[in-house]
Amino acid sequence: MAKKMRTWTAAENAFNNFRSGVQREMTDRVIIAGLEATKAGGDVAGAMAAETEACDAEWPRRAAAWDAERRAARADAADPAATAAPASAADAATAAAGDAAEDADDTALRAEIDRLLTPSRLRVAGWSVKTQRAFIVALAETGCVSHAAQAVGRSRQSAYALRNRAPRAIFAIAWDVAIEQGKKRLYDLALEQAIEGREVPVWYRGEQVGTRRVFNDRLTAFLIAHKRGPAHPAMSDYEASAMLPQMLGALGMVLPDPLAVRIATEKAIARESARDPAQDRPGGRWGKLYPQEEDELFPKLDS
Asked: Exposed, middle or buried, 251 (CB in 10 Å: 0-12/13-18/19+)?
């Protein structure tokens, strides 16, 4: 069974490029050693084996030198002040004050992101969770906001005000799903009328003498050309309808701010990328010059 693939870290990619170059160089050295032995009439296999052994012995030293250079470059990038000229006491105090202010800003930003990531409750006088649930059920049945609001004893304006107050609330999402279900019923009725037509009375000299069936060609053309969009951009209509009962159970909750969610996700990805999974791999520090298994691909690189 094939092993699960994963994305290389930046350190693993750099190490792989470095080792590929060393492999090409040392392969050329072994081939040249064999050619020189052939010209000299010596032991070709022995010469190539000796050069291969020398390359294998040289590889750990070159890999260690590469890692030392990489760690030194990372240290310089992380602490540019270490390579800068000594600053005066006033400059040091100014820099310390700036760092303190920056840390305070970072702390405030993290606190604000944590606040935005915390789900909240939607509390509005006259719109309890029970009332919201009854409104959504009525809206799904009728497809009409005015009728649904009247069914729960509230005004149409207050219903829209509640939705506009918290657009990330489950109430607003369930509203869209309920409207789509109402549209489906309306679409079914319109489709039936387009196919079956409708009866209209026939009048003669002020009296109804019969009926006739008429068809609306414009309605038929509209239904053929019309394509309804999904109620939610991340869910199909089927998925949204299937989740409506769960939404009814979660009414009153306001979802986290999407910008805060994106920032938190990006920070989590950055932390995961900074962590070197090669540190958890078994085997020697520098692996093999010509690895055969996945666990031999990368050394335990210092982060």
From this structure: buried
Structure tokens given for 238: 């089927």
User: Which residue, chain included where needed, has tokens 């970072």?
Assistant: 106
Q: Map tokens 């009332």 to a residue.
A: 131
Q: How far apart are CA 75 and CA 82, in angstroms?
A: 9
Domain residue spans in the chain?
10-77+276-296, 128-253
Tokens of 258: 């999407």
| No. of helices (H) and no. of strands (E), the chain | 10, 4
Q: Are strands 253-254 and 120-121 parallel, antiparallel or unpaired?
A: antiparallel
Q: What is the pLDDT of residues 30-75, one digit of tens each?
A: 999 988 988 888 888 899 999 999 988 898 888 888 888 888 887 7
Q: Are 15 and 301 in contact (CB under 8 A)?
A: yes
Tokens of 46: 């022995």
Please tell me the pTM assigned to this model. Answer: 0.40
